[in-house]
Amino acid sequence: AMEKTCMSVFLLLVAVSCTLAKDVGKKDTKETPAKPKLPQTLSRGWGDQLIWTQTYEEALFRAKNSNKPLMIIHHLDDCPHSQALKKAFAENKEIQKLAEKFILLNLVYETTDKNLSPDGQYVPRILFIDPSLTVRADITGRYSNRLYAYEPSDTALLYANMQKALKLLKTEL
């Protein structure tokens, strides 16, 4: 008898919540016209005020022609490490300010260019490429098994590496 009562109460709750959910949906559509969904910006949440390139080819072209280093961030929307790094990156004012000196690209897919996965295809990874279009193998994170990986706690290292990429640019060109 107890099980039957519990089941009845459960089904009643389900029915009530479904009805309420329908009502809520109806009210909203009458009062406010549906807002058109804005297309996702190229920043994908990594820094909306920064200028991001759309493709690897465009990024390479702009790096070469502007004489700025290119910073490529590989990440995935459903990867908790990528999401955590994105949040740390976007909320770090120093990183956001320094990022303005780079050509920026963030990719949620792998490119066929083997240079962009020198030690494997993992996310998140951040690579620096100089205007001579060379991947900077000397600018890495702190993990020997994933050279270009950064954790949210590595923002100071990432910032230092961004500075290093800019400094190398001045000394080598």
From TrEMBL:
Gene Ontology molecular-function annotations: dystroglycan binding
Signal peptide limits: 1-21
Principal location class: endoplasmic reticulum
Pfam families given in the database record: Thioredoxin_7
Top-rank lineage group of the source organism: Eukaryota
GO cellular component entries: endoplasmic reticulum; extracellular region
Keyword field: Endoplasmic reticulum, Secreted, Signal
Record's subcellular location: Endoplasmic reticulum; Secreted
Entry similarity comment: Belongs to the AGR family.
Name assigned to this protein: AGR2 protein
Organism per entry: Piaya cayana
Upper lineage: Eukaryota, Metazoa, Chordata, Craniata, Vertebrata
